[in-house]
Amino acid sequence: MEKIAVVIPCYRVTEHVLEVISLIDDRVWRIYAIDDCCPDGSGNVITAQCSDSRVRVLRHETNQGVGGAVMTGYKAAIADGVDIIVKVDGDGQMDPALLWHFVEPICKDRADYTKGNRFYDLTFINRMPTIRIIGNAALSFLTKISTGYWTIFDPTNGYTAIHARVAASLPFDRISRRYFFETDMLFRLNTIRAVVFDVPMHAKYGDEQSNLKIGKILPEFIGKHIKNLGKRIFYNYFLRDMTVASFELVSGSALFLFGTAFGIAHWISGIAHNRETPFGTIIVSTLCVLIGLQLLLAFIGFDVANVPQRPIHDSLPGPLGTPSTRTEDQK
Which candidate, 136, 138, 144, 97, places its Cα nearest to that of 120? Predict the structure, then answer.
């Protein structure tokens, strides 16, 4: 039986976190509540009012953001020998009863990392604020491109589970610690070819206040997505391996840019000298653009088909370098 732990980042959640803890299944071995320098004293509230022996309160002297809090919980869980780590927010929007839906795909070797998706059931979408629907749709599209996980949606969903061996393989010091954390996790997981699985769920929206402002963080997210896309393409198609897709990307980009620049230059020259652009010039420019576009579309098709399919957690060493001890009967 896998040893399960739950990580709860705590920042301004004193009104909801005790109820969240009380609803966590008894089969969970440990609960890590991370007081991220909460001005409301979440850690003190939990220590004083929670009698659950599974709870461990960890404290940050300075606020590190949701990513920093989660990674503190990950490190503690890995050190304690946990097998699977579930992350649940403390604001009451995530139903702890769904926890086993996130754990099961990992236990059954179908995934290395699972995350919630609130867009499966159209009934529950009607309950979601409109700005969140629009923001999540935009961020989901950007995330598909930058992370390479073309089959997932709702990337900012914080209800997640991860195998501890996979978590231990991630570069915690390089992962974004603020609101980009969930998306940056996906990028890092793709670089090690981890399998990510979407879990249908619905969220509860009550009187809690979200600190995530889509309009404010969208420009920042776009810049980080572009950066991650460049790194992912370089890692996967040039540094780690060279495939036909690498040729398609290089040659397609070169032909498309040359055809576009060549055509525009001759068009401007024709206007400046009051003469028509030669038909041959138009043909050369058009062919380069069309062939380049076809090669780029072929690359995108390859990238979509290249989503990781085989879970890696059983092939990874343990946190201390020990190999997997699971037998075939346990798999």
Answer: 136
**Residues 203, 89 share a domain:** yes
Angstrom CA distances, 47 to 52, 207, 230, stand at 10, 24, 45
Structural domain of 254: 242-305
> What's the CA gap between 196 and 309, in Å, rounded?
9
Residue whose pair of structure tokens reads 């499966």 in the numeric block: 120
- Using the predicted structure, report yes or no on whether residue 323 has a pLDDT greater than 60: no
113-117/160-163 β-pairing: antiparallel
pLDDT of 233 reads 95
Flag whether pLDDT at 136 surpasses 80.
no
Single out the residue of 268, 267, 265, 260 nearest to residue 285, CA to CA: 260
What is the tally of structural domains in the chain?
2
Question: Alpha-carbon dihedral of residues 61, 65, 68, 72, nearest 10 degrees?
Answer: 60
Domain shared by 15 and 124, yes or no: yes
Percent of the chain with pLDDT over 70: 88
pLDDT confidence bin for 124, thresholds 50/70/90:
low
- The owner of tokens 């732990």 is 5
- Whether residues 200 and 260 share a domain: the answer is no
